[in-house]
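User: Modeling request: complex.
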Amino acid sequence: QVRLVESGGGVVQPGGSLRLSCASSGFDFSIYGMHWVRQAPGKGLEWMTFIRYDGSRKYYGDSVKGRFTVSKDNSENTLYLQMNSLTTEDTAVYYCAKDPGFGEFPGSPDYWGQGTLVTVSS
Amino acid sequence: SYELTQPPSVSVSPGQTARITCSGDALSKKFACWYQQKSGQAPLLVIYEDSERPSGIPERFSGSSSGTMATLTISGAQVDDEGDYYCYSTDRRGNQGIFGPGTKVTVL
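Assistant: Request completed. Predicted assembly structure:
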């Protein structure tokens, strides 16, 4: 079955950087796009970014554009999120999620990991 | 920026029908989907492409869309259906995902 496991979360100071990973199994990672979605404590879901199955297209939400970079290693079945210039407003649980298709544009995420908590605090 | 609108809360008695709406200008051209999230858990897809139900999701969950509004209906709601429900779609260009603010469903 589809399995997504995020890692790399933790405590980081404002202005710092962090890289999250999402290890996948149970499906052909190389032919599906992937998303990152986050949820601040007590708040709703926020879509952050989508990467096409082959990594050739990437789209970002306005709140992370220019600071966060998504990448995908199909040989390792792993999705990454490089986060720079972090602020306290980036404190959240970060989820990776599988896209249902291999199109150029984001679809509706169908399978989700359990998330990893990122806390930005001095 | 583009937004989706949902009611903050919906309350129903067990066995009754709960309806959650999601409004957005682009919904007349873009599909909506719906997620259920229980406390401390990851979101679960319950409806995709406006009205399709993933395998394993109970038949009491259904979706529809008309004009700029999508609707999630829970027919014969059960206590186990309590949680937060989020609609999701994409912006007009289709290259950014958007979640609604979420609706808290209470069954009591």
